Amino acid sequence: MDDNVEDCPVCLNTFDDTHRRPRNLPCGHTLCTPCINELKEQGAVTCPTCRVSHALPEAGQFPISYITEAFIRKMRGAGLACVAPKPEKQLTAPAAVTQPAPRATAGLSKRTRSLLQEQEAKVLAAIRSCQEEQSQLADYRTTLGGWCGRQQQLEDDLQTLVDQSKGAREAISHEDSRVEGRQEKVRQREEALHAMLQELRTPSTRQEAYEVIEDADHLLEEEEEEEERAAVFPDVHVVTTVTRVAESSRSALQAATLQATQTAIEPAGSTAAAAVAAAGDSSLSESPAAASSIADRLAALLEPSLTAEELLRLTQRARGLVEAGRVLAVQDVEGQTRHARISLEHGRLHLHSLQATPPPPHALTLQVDF
């Protein structure tokens, strides 16, 4: 096998982000997608490296190795595979952009050359702006790639929990079947004991009495054996397995919820709630539109939203947002939206007059009842 991490150890072709994407087998070895498809046999794949057989997941394919893809991208300096499948050209501008070619304008008038130079300066400024935007977009794609990897890992962890939960549910079902069978035996034994009780009350001769007593002894001996069999319930293995799976599932779900809360992004332009005219409800908005770069706007979106408690208590963060003019009051009455600026006057919140215009774009809204 080839030790080059960029190549599939079976076909020796280089991994890519379209046809030959690397995929992880449960044993830890990585193969390209076509090779795994060729190795599929009766719902399983045998690893050609360690010869361990792995059952196919319910999705029909093993998870993509985002770590391998990220490592290969880092080595190649290429773009992000899971966000944009097509490779991009190097973002760095060619030397000819910043180093002008030899001029052929010597025969032109001074005025004409001056106009050309002005336009050239504008074009160079536009090129630098494009380069800056390309750089910001590349950084943003890197961030998206990290989110993509974390989400895939979360899906894999959840799938593992689902498989464990199915196994626990099957164990519970099997135990329930055993209990049901035991219930039927106990019911039959109880009927036999009731019948024996009637026989003990009805003998008319000594011979019949001794026969009934002997039959009762045999039945009671069987009863003792049945009581010993009943001691196998509950099954210790089933109880411990179900308890362990339940605890691990709860812990994993709590961790997943916390992670989702920490990485969640509020959709641009979303509205938390509409106000009702009779109740006089309004919304407070914080807009990240003033941020200049993609990274700044992303950071503003990821920043925790201002809460009503923070605003009413005038915390340091709320005071800073109000002083920066980033907190607005928004009223929505019968589909008509108006907003008003909120400022600080002598250390207290001051609401300005409403304007018949919608709030700024990309505003995040917070429902507050006064």
Distance between the termini: 71 Å
Question: What is the average per-residue confidence, as pLDDT, rounded to a whole number?
Answer: 76
What is the number of helical segments per DSSP (H or I, 4+ residues)? Answer: 9
Whole-angstrom Rg? 37 Å
Amount of beta strand: 5-15%
The parts where pLDDT drops under 50 for at least 5 residues are: 78-98, 264-291
- Biggest beta sheet attributes: 5 strands, antiparallel
Question: Please, could you describe this protein's structure?
Answer:
- The chain contains 9 helices and 10 strands.
- Helix 4 runs antiparallel to helix 5 and helix 4 packs antiparallel against helix 6 (236-263).
- The relative contact order is 0.06.
- By secondary structure, the chain is α+β, with helices and mostly antiparallel strands.
- It is elongated and about 145 Å long.
- Strand 4 and strand 5 (53-55) form a beta hairpin.
- The strands form 3 sheets. Strands 9-8-7-6-10 form a 5-stranded antiparallel sheet.
- Residues 78-98 and 264-291 have low confidence and may be disordered.
